[in-house]
Amino acid sequence: MSALIDLKNIHKTYKNGGELTHALKNIDLTIDKGEFVAIMGPSGSGKSTLMNLLGLLDTPTNGTYILNSKDVSKLKGRELARIRNKEIGFVFQQFNLLPRTTVLENVLLPSIYGKVSNPSQRAEFLIEKVGLKDRKNHKSNELSGGQVQRVAIARALMMQPSIILADEPTGNLDSKKSNEIMQLFQEINKEGATIVLITHEDEIAKYADRIIHVKDGEVTNIENNK
Amino acid sequence: MKLYSILKQSFRSILSNKGRSFLTVLGVIIGIGSVIGLIALGNGVQASITDQISGLGSTNITVMSGSSLASRVSENGVSQRQQTGTPGAGLSTPQTLTKEDLQSLDQVSTDLVKNISGTVSSNAIFKLDAIEERFNVAGVSPRYFQINDLPLSGGKYLDLDDIDRNDNVIILGDSIAHEFFDSTDIIDKTITVQNTEFTIIGVLAKKEESNFSFNNPNSEAFIPDFTALSLFKTNYYNSFTVQAVTSDTVEQAKSQIEDIILKNHNIEDKSLADFSLTTAGELLSTVSQITGVLTSLLAGIAAISLLVGGIGIMNIMLVSVTERTREIGLRKAVGAQTTDILIQFLIEAVILTLLGGIFGILLGYAISIGASRLLDFSGVVTMDAILLAVGVSSLIGIIFGIYPAAKAARLNPIDALRYE
């Protein structure tokens, strides 16, 4: 299987006032197409920074990031936005949906900023897939926490991205709802989607094929789960 | 698709804060409304004055004593006055129009003019028994009543015999008649004017009063012009009014009259004339100019409130950007470009100001209709004013929306998503 993501020697430093913070140090990581990977670590470990880099919300200070055989580490804002739209589907922990907006419109959101064939048809299909067919015209504030995450997953799939990046997607859910969401991720993964999950909970990480442990800005351990 | 969804989103966000949006837009509504309302009133005043002047007769030519102010204060004016020996110093109007001038106007072809009248007017004390009051008395030619369209309610007009005999006969305006007499049957009664006894031969019908009338015939009395000359112990008329046959003959008649009076006064250079001719058309253009300047001035003042409205828009857009920081972060994460965000917030600002523009036009209409009820002229809302309002309000939306929109567009997606 070919590598979808290839991080080589990635460094990320922030200047905070006069102080230099080394958030990521020398990260080497490859993720293959169709993998389900969890990135684990305590808060402040650098896992969020890693996720921002993977999601092209940020660029590395040093090193190369090859996504889909393309070096994306030196790209500028306009290009980054375009690739985010096309290649990456985000599921955040909170504030996933636009307020006062219907489920259907939320799922359609990425298609406003990019091209996909038959957007409405695809959105309806995805809403049905995540089990919210009867709620497609409900406003986002009329949904439960689990339903919100389902909508976010449907939205993440909208543009047929290369990877789904999920940042603590079950952080606000009880364990029953969390398991349902994780099963949904597993299901999508089986259908071919590459998923990168950020979490600090073992319970959640165990759904992944591979668990990458991060601490103090470094990969400390890679654990095969299958 | 993109534009539709942006528009939809903008309306949703405006409607979700109805109260706030309304208060914000109110500034623009008041601004646009007052600009349109004041322009409408200005146009209304102009139209009303134009009507009045046309009512005076668009074919009327007025000959006034004295030269124009400009030439009077110039050196030429001074030497000219010395030349003709006219009395009067400084800026007071020297009297120069004589009985002979009036009579000489008969030379003007009857193809060009139909009525000629001279006016000698002054304030005089009217006395009847114990009542004593000041009114304006105008010594006029018989034709005056035709030229100025003054119908009688009783009695008869002055005739040429009255003029020739210097008769002490008088026609009273409606208000004066009511001031001195209770009954309406007052023909052939007498009244004392300036210590001279006059016989009342007619009473004018009541004329609709107007804010913009130059004189009010209701409180004026009319006597034969020759009688007036001797009553006021003067040789000079204040003005002549000449009515041209049609508006096409006005200019020709004007130049003939000018030539005749110049010749009478032995003046060769037209610029030194000791009298001035004004046609209704010239008066109209002068008045239009003045009311135009006034209208622009008022609209300019009203435009300041538009500026304030614009600042209100900017303020609320800044609040909106801050409130929706995470929405902006989310949009950027799913692929929105900087320009997408910029356009979204700009469109929202423009929609707000356009709404203000639309309601402002309605307010402007209301102001103009309200004013028409209270005053005796009606506002005129022109298409120009409406287009101006729409243009200006969208421009304000862009000008005052660009800063908040740029602020939104520049947000870093990571910071925006994390914003609490």
What are its keywords?
heterodimer; A: 226 residues; alpha/beta; four-stranded antiparallel sheet; globular; B: 420 residues; alpha+beta; six-stranded mixed β-barrel; 15 helices; 12 strands
In words, what does this structure look like?
The complex is a heterodimer of chains A (226) and B (420). Chain A has helices at residues 47-54, 77-87, 103-112, 119-129, 145-157, 175-190, 202-205; strands at 3-16, 19-32, 36-40, 62-67, 70-71, 88-91, 163-167, 194-199, 210-215, 218-224. In chain A, strand 1 and strand 2 (19-32) form a beta hairpin. By secondary structure, chain A is an alpha/beta fold. Chain A starts with a strand and ends with a strand. Chain A is built from seven helices and ten strands. With 420 residues, chain B is an alpha+beta fold. In chain B, 57% of the residues lie in helices and 17% in strands. Chain B contains 15 helices and twelve strands. Chain B has helices at 2-16, 18-57, 69-73, 75-84, 99-104, 144-147, 160-164, 174-180, 225-231, 250-264, 280-323, 325-333, 338-374, 383-410, 413-418, and strands at 60-65, 97-98, 113-128, 131-140, 152-155, 169-172, 190-193, 196-204, 220-224, 236-237, 239-244, 275-279. In chain B, the strands form two sheets. A six-stranded mixed beta barrel of chain B has the order 3-4-9-6-8-7. In chain B, strands 2-10 form a two-stranded antiparallel sheet. In chain B, helix 1 crosses helix 13 and helix 2 (18-57) crosses helix 13 (338-374). The longest helix of chain B is centred in the C-terminal third of the chain and has 44 residues, at 280-323. The A-B interface holds A 52, 55, 57-58, 77-78, 81-82, 84-86, 90, 92, 95-96, 98-101, 105, 108-114, 119, 155, 159 and B 1-2, 5-6, 9, 12-13, 16, 326-327, 330-338, 340, 413-414, 417.
